[in-house]
Structures are given as structure tokens and as C-alpha cells.
């Protein structure tokens, strides 16, 4: 009986250890989040983190040389990267096993593809793994928090007392992007105010605080009816429409004195992209159980 109880206690202890939060420090390389990771018990890899990616991708050339003990099956999936020159990549295989990365089990699929062109487009040298948002435990602990000031990501079971959410909004993950639904308030340098509601992207890799999609029906309607000042400036990409030196507020987080870009993209189902200048003002928690995105 003692042996059975001891075995049960050991099992519970291992389960508890398995769901502890995993902290992962990262550095910025050309404004991308990069870190060194351990896959399985000892295989080292250089990774880039993309919180909008709902899977992980391992470089095929690195995998062949790494000696990582995995089996794969053929799986061709086209993954779009519309904001990069390479536009998309196509996977060749999918890993059959559930991998552990820095001690945490992968929750989302792990694909294999040639990442050379993507690495060049993202300006990340020697990227061996593209790490998505799915590094978390499966047992109702699917949470990831981005601490921008500390340059740290935390996956899994987290201390709620030190992770107080000030404001939250529905989280949508039906595509390759990180999508939230709510409102964005814009205040111009002359204190004109515009409020937009709908779905928007959150992308720490986009340098500006806010880029609005001018072809979106909601954006076009609200901007055209407002008195907010808009300028057209020249850039290396041609003329750009901007709201100069304004403020952007969403979920209680504000980025100030920032140029807000308005694109001419047509039929875009999002009102815009909240980028790094806004993201770095707050810590962001993605809770994939309650499907909520929170700021604190």
C-alpha cells in the first residue's frame, strides 16, 4: 500500500512539475525576438519567436543534421507571410511526435520546411526553428504572456497574483495571425478623436504603433466623416498617408506622439495592426482556454 501511495505521489509530483510555467528570455535581432532553445533532452537550436504563428516550423536542413530522434510524415501546407518579401513557405513534412521545447510540451503541430528564404526575409541569421504561440501544456493551462520590458516570454501555469489583467478582449485564432476584437481610439496632435471598432491584428514585429487599413469599410467610413488631420508624405515605397504625431489607445494601453499609417489595401477584413510601439507599453497575456487577450 505504501508503495502504491508513494507511486501516486511521485506521479502527481511529476505532473505538477510538467505544468509549471516556462520562462524564456529572448533578444532582439533586427527587431525580431530570437532565443536559443533545447528540443527534447539535449538538442540545441536557434529560434525566432512569432506569436502570431499557430504552429512551430523546423528547418529541414537543420533537422537532417541535428540527429533529433523524430519521425515525420509528408505534409504539404502553404503558410502565408504576406508582410514579408517571400510571401509564403510550403512545408514538406510534419513531425509525428509531441516534442518538448525548453521542458514544455508542444501543443500545436510541428512542421518541417526549408526556412532559408524566410530567415533572409525576416533578417534573422541562422534561424533553425520558427517558434509559434503553441508552446504550452495541454491540461487547461494554455496561456502565454509576453513581458516586453524584461524581454521574456512565459508559457503555461502562471501566478495570477503577479499577472493582473487590466483590460481584455476576445481573441480570435482562426488564421495564421494574432487577432483580437475590440476598439482602437486615435487622438490627433490637434486633439481630434476617432474611435474604430472591429477586428485588428497584433504584431510585435511591426515597428509602428498602428497601421490602419484604408480599404476596410469601417476605417474608410469613420476617417472620411472625421475632421482628423491627414498628411501625405513621400517614402521609399512611394506616397504614404499618415495621421502625424498622434496617440493610439486600446485595452487601456496608450502609445503617444506616433505617426499612424493608413494603407490603400483593398477588402481587408481588419481595421489595422497594433505594432511594437503599442505592444511595448504593456505586458500581453494570451489565454487560449477562455479565448481572451489581456493587457496588464
N- and C-termini, Cα separation: 48 Å
What is the approximate shape? globular
Strand content: over 45%
Poorly predicted ranges: 1-18
DSSP helical segment count: 5
What is the number of beta strands?
A: 25
User: What structural class do helix, strand and pairing data support?
Assistant: mainly beta
Could you give the order of the helices and strands?
HEEEEEHEEEEEEEHEEEEEEEHEEEEHEE
Radius of gyration: 21 Å
Helical content, roughly? 10-25%
The strand line-up of the biggest sheet is 2-3-4-13-5-12-9-6
Main sheet? 8 strands, mixed
Average pLDDT over all residues: 82
Describe the fold and architecture:
- The chain has 296 residues and is mostly beta strands.
- Helix content is 15%, strand content 45%.
- It has helices spanning 2-18, 60-66, 116-122, 217-225, 276-279, and strands at residues 22-25, 27-29, 32-39, 43-49, 56-59, 72-74, 78-81, 87-90, 93-95, 100-101, 104-105, 110-113, 129-131, 143-147, 152-155, 167-172, 179-187, 193-202, 210-215, 231-235, 238-250, 253-266, 272-274, 284-287, 292-295.
- An eight-stranded mixed β-sheet has the order 2-3-4-13-5-12-9-6. Strands 17-18-23-19-22-21 form a six-stranded mixed barrel. It has a two-stranded antiparallel ribbon with strand order 7-8.
